[in-house]
Design goal:
Radius of gyration: 24 Å
Number of helices: 3
Distance between the termini: 55 Å
Number of strands: 0
């Protein structure tokens, strides 16, 4: 596992120490969990933004078969 040095305000350090005492987790564990959650949230938002950006990108294409017609063909066969 890689180590990274961070500098945080004293108020955050105090809150982190209190949470560590309350939860029984180390400050290192809490920071790792917080970073994991941050990354997960970012990836989720980023994925949603990319999907929204891609929405409708094939709407004006004439060379792509109609999906409903294709599905009907599958049911007829």
């Amino acid at each position: 596992m890689a180590e990274t040095k961070i500098t945080i305000p004293e108020s955050i350090q105090e809150a982190l120490a209190e949470i560590a005492l309350t939860t029984g987790k180390s400050e290192q564990q809490l920071i790792a969990e917080a970073l994991s959650e941050l990354i997960q949230n970012y990836q989720t938002r980023n994925r949603l933004a990319l999907m929204r950006k891609a929405k409708g990108m094939w709407a004006d294409r004439e060379d792509i078969p109609n999906l409903e017609e294709l599905r009907q063909e599958w049911h007829l066969g």
